[in-house]
Amino acid sequence: MFASEAFDQDHIEEEPDWDRARCRDRSGAATALFFSDEIPDILRAKAICRECALLDACLSGAIDRREPAGVWGGELFADGRILTHKRKRGRPPKNRSAEGVALTA
Ligand code: SF4
């Protein structure tokens, strides 16, 4: 083994074991929660993420991919951006500050 190979092997990041993801229930039941428009479902999905060992890797990947929708890594995404909160269904509020605010570019 050459010195450069040893260096490369030391710096290979391990791929997360996605089988350990808390949202992976193999039945697909969790998918509805993670891609729901309902605020209680979104909050439940975020709570599941908070206990997930893969949260950091999941969130980082979702940001990199600019996920168009869903809860990833404990955050709600829309059009590739993280929303700080989701507005309730129905008529928009008169105060625009109550609408979702994007955190990422
Ligand atoms: S952090 Fe990612 S992998 Fe873990 S439960 Fe949430 S969406 Fe699933």
**Helical element count?**
4
H/E series, N to C?
HHHHEEE
The whole-number mean of residue pLDDT values reads 83
Strand content: 5-15%
Which spans have pLDDT < 50 for at least 5 consecutive residues?
Answer: none
Structural category is alpha+beta
Helix content: 25-40%
**If strands are numbered along the chain, what order do they take across the biggest sheet?**
1-2-3
Radius of gyration: 18 Å
Domain module tally: 1
> How many beta strands in the DSSP annotation?
3
| Small-molecule components bound | iron/sulfur cluster
What labels would you give this structure?
single chain, 3-stranded antiparallel sheet, 3 strands, 35% helix, 105 residues, globular, binds iron/sulfur cluster, alpha+beta
Would you summarize the structure shown here?
This protein has helices at residues 3-10, 29-34, 39-50, 55-65, and strands at 69-72, 75-78, 81-83.
